[in-house]
């Protein structure tokens, strides 16, 4: 995973959320409140899964 700021500002670490039955604790300032509510992407450097499970797509391919 690529990253830069590690503070939730740049968005380089953003991963796709394929599915989740839990709650994402979005701690970044990169995504808008609307984007955070959609739970389709998260900044992995600062955001967390607060409950449940999630399948994420890091974009990394072998
Ligand atoms: S590394 Fe910049 S938002 Fe995560």
UniProtKB/TrEMBL annotation:
Q: Which domain of life is it from?
A: Bacteria
Organism whose genome encodes this protein? Pelagibacterium lentulum
Q: Which GO terms describe its molecular function?
A: 2 iron, 2 sulfur cluster binding
Do you know which Pfam families this protein is assigned to? Fer2
- Protein name (Swiss-Prot/TrEMBL): 2Fe-2S ferredoxin-type domain-containing protein
InterPro entries (alphabetical): 2Fe-2S_ferredoxin-like_sf, 2Fe-2S_ferredoxin-type, 2Fe2S_fd_BS, Beta-grasp_dom_sf
Q: Where is the 2Fe-2S ferredoxin-type domain positioned along the sequence?
A: 3-49
């Amino acid at each position: 995973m690529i990253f830069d700021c590690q503070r939730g500002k740049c968005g380089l670490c953003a991963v796709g959320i394929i599915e989740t039955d839990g709650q994402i604790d979005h701690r970044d300032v990169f995504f808008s409140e609307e984007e955070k509510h959609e739970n389709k992407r998260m900044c992995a450097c600062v955001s967390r899964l607060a409950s449940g499970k999630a399948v994420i797509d890091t974009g990394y391919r072998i």
